[in-house]
């Protein structure tokens, strides 16, 4: 997620503590508490994916089975590209012969390529489930590191914040078939590095590290990187307004480091980004701006999410039509408001978090305010933004609340740390001779930001108990439950055994029936995924250009595809003409087909009758019906 954080020296530090701080040993290696936190995150990741492990080879997300199958296909794409040393930015193993621009789709290349050996060994289904739980845990772990090393003193506070950042309701909801949105483990590292750019004498090193991290994140999820960049921009602007003298003094160093980082990232990713927008099968925007109207429902902010111990599926009938990116539940919203009210006057970090929460929550409401599932007719912020504005037309307003989610995760850690209130110095301790960013400039009067936080001895024990209880009761209802999963039929033995090989020479395709798509042909798309792309298939589930160059889901339907889908929808054989048969031959010629294959399917009988009427009598080979069309193409 887009994780905001501010330089640790923004924390108020008593002079006596700061003077002694450099003598403390910095925490470079994980302590026992760190290992326990990471272990807990791993167990939570296993819990979230538990329903998949019941039958990992034959289960997919029941919420987004299409996306689940697409990402299994992506893991096979990474394995195939590395094994055959092919360009991973493009493939013709789906949507043959036109192919798919992988940079213009959510390709997760930064994950699928390194994990290719595991995919060869275990298969894409197992690697998908392993990675999904691992990515959730890894995001929580890097968030914990960010908080414990750069923002809060209490390890318990860092644990709570890290758990929320890794397993927040919006993130867990995206885990239903969209592992790219849970792959946020680099974002805390990126944010920390951004705010270390202002360190005197280290701008070049920090800039180089930032450039490498940003370049790698581009191959994981560009959208989350964009949200993180927007969050950082708002933080920098807010900090400059609140601390103009300090910001001005460090602007040169910060700008130099940012230039180095941006230049390196651009150098490393220039060709892939060019390929994304100008390579084969690239497109300009999405047809009709389909995501532009997806604003967050106001009621969703206080609603318990489905995939938690306090959630229920029933609520989706009214406000669950959009993505569940907030769904914090009313206790967390109440505690967050109280925490901001108590901390905002004495903590610069809290004030910046308040700016993030308000700005991105309002921005996420979309073009028209939605309340409890109903459009109110009240214009939202996106109503003033043209729907065809480049880049913006690809964005989904509701996803801006992922920054809100991240801000609340940091706020939870900050609140727990304030309740704990110990006298240990902030982490990391300031270097000898370095002024604290939170300290006032020469000639600048001290403010409440420099006032020491009350220590544990000064704060009554009962008050701390109330604070811990309030935070715990706010987050406990959001503990995730195992993601819902459903069984899916395995591919035919004809496919998995390799019996297809004599029928599909190089340069030809295997045409499964139904034709692969995100609606009708999910099962046959998995034929390609689970054989790790050993044969190319036509059409599929992806975003590609239509005749006008606009992005659409899937390939434009050809006449035979349309006939197949219509037959599936009606369950009846349509009246066919010689024109239909001529078009069928044209289509299999376009697809460079060698065989057309129909496996077990709920509509198997009527689909067999349709294909027989178009192509003639099939052969029964193993457990499939097969039309050998090599003599016609």
Notes on the structure:
With 633 residues, this protein is of the alpha+beta class. It has helices spanning 15-20, 32-48, 50-53, 65-83, 109-112, 116-122, 124-150, 155-167, 169-174, 187-195, 203-218, 222-242, 244-278, 316-319, 330-343, 348-363, 401-420, 461-475, 493-496, 522-530, 559-570, 578-590, 604-615, and strands at residues 59-61, 90-91, 100-101, 368-371, 374-379, 485-487, 509-513, 543-545, 551-553, 593-598, 619-621, 624-628.
Question: What's the layout of helices and strands?
Answer:
Elements: H1 15-20, H2 32-48, H3 50-53, E1 59-61, H4 65-83, E2 90-91, E3 100-101, H5 109-112, H6 116-122, H7 124-150, H8 155-167, H9 169-174, H10 187-195, H11 203-218, H12 222-242, H13 244-278, H14 316-319, H15 330-343, H16 348-363, E4 368-371, E5 374-379, H17 401-420, H18 461-475, E6 485-487, H19 493-496, E7 509-513, H20 522-530, E8 543-545, E9 551-553, H21 559-570, H22 578-590, E10 593-598, H23 604-615, E11 619-621, E12 624-628
Parallel strand pairs: 7-10
Antiparallel strand pairs: 1-6, 2-3, 4-5, 8-9, 10-12, 11-12
Helix pairs in contact: 2-7, 2-8, 4-6, 4-7, 4-20, 6-7, 7-8, 7-10, 8-17, 10-11, 11-13, 12-13, 12-16, 15-17, 15-18, 16-17, 17-18, 21-23
């Amino acid at each position: 997620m887009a994780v905001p954080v501010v330089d640790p020296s923004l924390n108020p530090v008593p002079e006596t503590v700061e003077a002694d701080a450099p003598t403390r040993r910095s925490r470079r290696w994980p302590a026992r508490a760190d290992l326990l936190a990471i272990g807990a995150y791993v167990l939570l990741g296993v819990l979230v994916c538990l329903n998949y492990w019941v039958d990992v080879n034959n289960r997919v997300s029941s919420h987004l089975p299409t996306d689940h199958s697409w990402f299994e296909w992506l893991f096979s794409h990474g394995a195939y590209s590395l094994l055959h040393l092919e360009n991973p930015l493009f493939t013709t193993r789906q949507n043959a012969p036109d192919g798919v621009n992988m940079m213009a789709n959510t390709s997760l290349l930064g994950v699928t390529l390194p994990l290719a050996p595991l995919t060869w060994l275990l298969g894409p289904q197992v690697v998908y489930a392993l990675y999904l739980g691992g990515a959730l845990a890894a995001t929580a772990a890097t968030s914990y590191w960010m908080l414990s090393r750069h923002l809060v003193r209490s390890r318990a506070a860092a644990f709570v914040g890290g758990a929320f950042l890794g397993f927040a309701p919006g993130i867990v909801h995206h885990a239903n078939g969209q592992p790219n949105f849970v792959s946020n483990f680099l974002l805390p590292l990126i944010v920390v590095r951004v705010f270390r750019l202002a360190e005197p004498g280290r701008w070049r090193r920090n800039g180089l590290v930032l450039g490498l991290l940003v370049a790698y994140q581009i191959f994981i999820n560009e959208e989350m990187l964009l949200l993180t960049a927007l969050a950082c921009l708002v933080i920098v602007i807010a900090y400059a307004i609140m601390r103009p003298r300090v910001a001005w003094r460090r602007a040169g160093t910060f700008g130099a480091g940012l230039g180095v980082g941006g230049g390196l990232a651009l150098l490393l990713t220039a060709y892939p980004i060019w390929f994304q927008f100008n390579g084969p099968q690239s497109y300009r925007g999405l047809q009709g701006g389909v995501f532009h109207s997806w604003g967050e429902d106001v009621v969703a902010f206080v609603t318990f999410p489905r995939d938690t111990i306090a959630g229920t599926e029933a609520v989706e009938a009214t406000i669950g039509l959009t993505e569940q990116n907030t769904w914090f539940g009313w206790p967390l919203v109440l505690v967050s408001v109280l925490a901001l009210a108590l901390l905002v006057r004495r903590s610069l970090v809290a004030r910046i978090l308040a700016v993030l929460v308000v700005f991105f929550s309002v921005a996420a409401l979309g073009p028209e305010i939605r309340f409890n599932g109903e459009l109110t007719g009240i214009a939202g912020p996106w109503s003033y933004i043209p729907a065809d504005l480049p880049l913006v037309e690809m964005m989904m307003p509701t996803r801006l609340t992922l920054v809100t989610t991240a801000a609340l995760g940091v706020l939870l850690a900050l609140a727990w740390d304030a309740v704990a209130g110990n006298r240990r110095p902030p982490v990391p301790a300031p270097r000898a001779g370095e002024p604290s960013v939170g300290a006032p400039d020469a000639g600048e009067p001290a403010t409440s930001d420099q006032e020491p936080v009350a220590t544990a001895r000064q704060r009554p024990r009962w008050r701390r108990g109330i604070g811990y209880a309030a935070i715990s009761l706010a987050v406990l209802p959001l503990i995730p439950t195992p993601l819902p999963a459903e069984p899916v039929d395995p591919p035919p033995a004809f496919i998995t055994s390799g019996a297809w090989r004599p029928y599909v020479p190089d340069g030809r395709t295997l045409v499964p029936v139904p034709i692969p798509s995100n609606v009708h042909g999910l099962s046959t798309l998995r034929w390609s995924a689970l054989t790790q792309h050993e044969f190319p298939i036509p059409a599929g589930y992806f975003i590609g250009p239509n005749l006008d160059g606009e992005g659409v889901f899937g390939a434009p339907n050809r006449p035979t595809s349309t006939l197949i889908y219509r037959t599936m929808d009606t369950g009846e054989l349509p009246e066919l003409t010689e024109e239909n048969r001529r078009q069928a031959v044209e289509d299999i010629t376009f697809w460079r087909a060698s065989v057309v294959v129909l496996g077990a399917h709920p509509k198997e009988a009527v689909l067999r009758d349709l294909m027989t009427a178009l192509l003639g009598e099939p052969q029964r080979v193993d457990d499939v019906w097969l039309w050998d069309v090599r003599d016609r193409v």
